[in-house]
Write a structure and sequence with these properties.
Elements (H helix, E strand, L loop, with lengths): L3 E4 L4 H6 L5 E10 L2 H12 L12 E3 L27 H6 L4 E4 L5 H9 L3 E4 L5 H4 L3 E8 L8 E15 L6 H10 L1
Length: 183
C-alpha cells in the first residue's frame, strides 16, 4: 500500500478519511509535547488560564528532540511512548486537538476520546529518530522553554512517515493485527 499525503492542520474531513493501517506522509506544522508539557497544560487549564498555544485542529508529536548538530534543523527526533500522556490526552482532545503522533498503545479512555472528538492517533517508527529528523524542516520553541527538551516546539514537517493506529471509527491497528495471529 502506497502512502497518502496529508497536509496539516487536520480537520474532520481529513480525519474521517483516515483508517487504521493507512500509511501517511504528513506535511505542515505540529507541536511537540511530552509528559512535563502535558502536565503543565492541564494544570494551566485547571486554574482557569489559557494554554500558551491554540490546539484546535492541531497535532501533537510526542518527542523530546536532541540538540541540532551544526547546520541541521534538529537533532534526533524519534517518538516517545504515548502511554505516558494518556491521562492528559482526553482533556486536550475535548478542546480540539485532532492528531497525536507517538509510539505504542493508547488506553481505552484515549481511544474513546479519539472517537468522541473525531481525532486520530498516528505511530512513527521508534528507533529511527535520526532518519525522522530529516523530515523536519523547521523548528522553534513556542512555550515552556524552561522544560528543555520537553518544551513545546513548533515543527514543520515535510513528508513525515506515520501509520494510522487508532482512527475515529474505533479501529485499532495493533489489536486488529494481533487478532489475525490468534485465530
Amino acid at each position: 500500500m502506497e502512502a497518502s499525503s496529508v497536509q496539516l492542520p487536520l480537520n474532520d474531513e481529513i480525519v474521517k478519511s483516515l483508517k487504521a493501517g493507512d500509511k501517511v506522509l504528513l506535511s505542515g506544522d505540529v507541536y511537540t509535547s511530552r509528559d512535563a508539557a502535558h502536565k503543565r497544560m492541564i494544570e494551566t487549564l485547571d486554574i482557569g488560564s489559557s494554554l500558551p498555544i491554540s490546539i484546535k485542529g492541531e497535532t501533537f508529536y510526542y518527542v523530546g528532540p536532541t540538540p541540532a548538530k551544526p547546520g541541521e534543523v534538529i537533532g534526533s527526533a524519534g517518538p516517545t511512548t504515548s502511554g505516558r500522556v494518556d491521562k492528559y490526552a482526553p482533556k486536550l482532545l475535548s478542546l480540539g486537538l485532532k492528531g497525536m503522533i507517538g509510539k505504542g498503545y493508547r488506553n481505552n479512555e484515549v481511544k474513546k476520546s479519539i472517537i468522541d472528538n473525531t481525532a486520530v492517533y498516528f505511530a512513527a517508527t521508534g528507533g529511527t529518530g535520526a532518519l525522522l529528523s530529516k523530515s523536519i524542516i523547521a523548528e522553534e520553541i513556542v512555550a515552556y522553554e524552561d522544560l528543555g527538551t520537553e518544551a513545546i516546539r513548533k515543527l514543520t514537517l515535510e513528508n513525515f512517515p506515520v501509520v494510522v493506529i487508532n482512527d475515529c471509527y474505533g479501529n485499532d491497528l495493533y489489536e486488529d493485527e494481533m487478532k489475525k495471529y490468534r485465530k
